[in-house]
Amino acid sequence: MQEERKIKVPTTGTYDFPSLILGGKGKYIDKTDLLYSLVNDADTQLFMSRPRRFGKSLMLSTLKAMFEGRRELFKGLAIDSLPWEGWEQPTPVYSFTMSSATGETYEGFMDRLGILVEGLCKEAGVPYQDKGPVSGRFEDFLKAVAEKSPTKKIVVLIDEYDEPVAKFLDDLPTLNKVRSVLHDFYEKLKVNSGSIRFLMMTGVTKLTKLSIFSGLNHLTDVTMNPRFATLLGYTPEELDGSLRENIEVFAAKNGMDFAAAKKALLAWYDGYRFSPESEAKVCNPVSLGNALKTCILANYWEATGQATTIVNRIKAAKEIPADLNGLAATRTQLDVCAAETMPLPALLYQGGYLTIKEAIDANFFRLGIPNNEIANSLAEGYVSTLLDAGMADWTEQLVVSREGLIAKGVESLLTKNLKAAFAAVPHEWKIEDEKEAKRYFLLFMKLIGADISGERQSARGRADAVLQDQSGTYVFEFKYGKTPQEALEQARTKEYGNPWLDRDLPVFHVGVNYDPKKRGIDDPLVEPAGGGKAAGFA
User: Fold this and answer.
1) What does the pLDDT look like over 7-16, one tens digit per residue?
2) Which architecture, in CATH terms, is 401-528?
3) Superfamily assignment of 30-228 in CATH?
4) Please, is 237 exposed, middle or buried when counting C-beta atoms within 10 Å of its C-beta (0-12, 13-18, 19+)?
5) DSSP string of 152-191?
6) What is the helix (H) or strand (E) element at residue 37, kind and residue range?
7) With a threshold of 0.85, does the pTM exceed it?
């Protein structure tokens, strides 16, 4: 019945606003009220960074149609009823992506940048002189199109401003040459700002120490502006409104009611918080759109391509992945990044792998993994990068463990799969203390889809991990170079399981010990929380 209604799903691959509206197949979630506020702000020369696949290109395409006055595309949207200047006096718009200027070498970059400017001139019907610095040719273009404009004003929209730089982050000599050229190129926007009605520049990272932004210090950074925290991405309220019919289809396909379906989707794709001054959170729009289209909860993020710089930094660290939830950070650490020494937390935050979890104030906060999809992406990225050729064996372990978890529950994990997983730890991964053993355990459990969380607080202390399934709640305590009995005794003495005793399902303490001599774990011991005899499952 619901398939016959031919319900439109949110766009996941169309980034051109006119094509989306005129094609009539994809659903556009109305953000034009926020865009109207954005373009009518006191500051009209703006910069915004967001993770990849968050709708930056679609936003710029929508802005282009607004300034061009294409009112027919906005029928029924919020801006259609607003006194927008574009309806009466359109402004010429010049929109381009700097990804088209990305080259494998410095010479390739310079060639492509020149071609980009030449294409802009041809589009505008103004002369192009293939001589002199490319920044000078760009300035000639800006002056010519402003003079040609009926209002003597133009709009400039630049997507992926940081793409040419990202290519050379590990090649400092070339990086220095590229950023010098881009500094001069972007500086022409500042020099000619008097003739630019509106400028919007977007990218994934804000590389403020690249010298690029010293040529763009007139831009207002709205990345963390609370007014625009929900401009890109879908809010829980939009799931209840514009996306409700899509979630109803998803729910029916998966045997859920609406509330359960919404909760599952939010757990997988929500959690991005872009302003410490606003508690508003949004879902990744492309991932959520794919889930609503396929009616399958899955990791769509990884399929869109990895952030090469981040993965390479992970590989260079040669560490077992840490539980990144609760990582402390300051606004400056995330905002002021040097290409040569970008810290991993800043890369992960700007790349969308971490988000603001708790704001102490406007300048100090704690970061965390936003949702299940990104937890999976981080783990997959770490594992596939570090294991290299051993990935096939690791994948087999994951599949077998996942099958056991589904068929037999936690018992299968504790009797067989967990010991096998620790036995498969690559020699390069140094498990040298209890902390490293817990990291590996959490990674493995998250990868097989277990409902697990680390470091859970109780009145008497912190449990190392809590795992829940249909058979009960399992509260883990880890030891290193000791015994499972000692681990279990601590969990029992500290009564780590007490917070879950008032639930319907039983609660168990689990003692686990990693033996560094054997490079593996002893048989875990299990006992009911609140009293009972300890035993292994074997």
Assistant:
1) 888 988 888 9
2) 3-Layer(aba) Sandwich (3.40)
3) P-loop containing nucleotide triphosphate hydrolases (3.40.50.300)
4) exposed
5) S-EEEEEE-TTHHHHTTTT-HHHHHHHHHHHHHHHHHHHH
6) helix 32-39
7) no
